[in-house]
Amino acid sequence: MKKINLSKLIIIALIIIIAAMSAIFISAKNFKSSRNPSAMTQTINDGTSFVDRVLVAPIHFVQDKANELSNLMDTYQQNQSLKTQLAKSKDDDNKLSGLESENKELKKALKLQETLTDYQTVAANVITREPSSWNDTLVIDSGSKDGLTTGMIVMANGGVVGRVTQVNKNSSKVALLSSSKGIDNKIPVRIESDGSPIYGILSSYDSQQQAYVVKNIDSEGKFKNGDSVFTSGLGTNSGSQGGTPSGLLIGKVIGEKQDSDGLGKMVYIKPETNLYDIRFVFVVKSKIDGQ
After folding, report:
1. What pLDDT digit, counting tens, does each position of 146-171 carry?
2. What pTM value is reported for the model?
3. What is the pLDDT of residues 53-68, one digit of tens each?
4. For residue 290, what are the contacts with CB-CB under 8 A and spacing of at least 6?
């Protein structure tokens, strides 16, 4: 095979370039004039346009793709920014909801405190409530330094919720009335009916009924759903000072059935308190007039 002569290639390339430049010059000149271009000029123009399209098309393609990529990145960044704003908004909403809930409970606590003017009380915060024993116990931030002793009644959200069962210097453990383990120190109660008061013992919690169970009710006692139930103040409990104070609201009657021994009634009491959400409590020490 014959070797390609480099000088010939250079000469051919120069001729093509000169011809192309001449064609472009002629095309531009005719375009400026008002005369119709000749057939040869039209051919040159068409050829020049074709070459221009061939050379420029890839550049336009690359530019378009670059613009698309830039727009895509802008959209991605905007989406990420919106996601961040949405997450922050949800977090703010959750905090606001928590503050509103806490505010409502504080108002209930203040209202409860107003009803306990006849009692010595200690206000406390719930500092521990384990998920595994949520319905059984909780820990508050008051203890022996605040005058607390075991057996004292604990109230929250308008009603009795449990008893103090363990006292440390700065904290105390509270056994809830909703405990599935039963109530060690059972609470004597009084049902306020239209007739004479009816007495019984709050002895357990029925998780299916979501209600306290009061036993030892006189089978002849007359009461109805909606009657209020209070602590009676009768009897004493180990570790308490003067037994259980009387007149503390527990809940309302929602039903009854015959006791298993057939000698009395079992009464179901709906708790006055939302037992699931307890943040602030009052520990009732004693009646003021009993000091």
Report:
1. 999 999 999 998 899 999 999 999 99
2. 0.61
3. 555 566 667 777 777 7
4. 242
Domains of the chain: 1-115 (no CATH), 120-290 (2.40.10.340)
Contact of 238 with 231, CB cutoff 8 Å: no
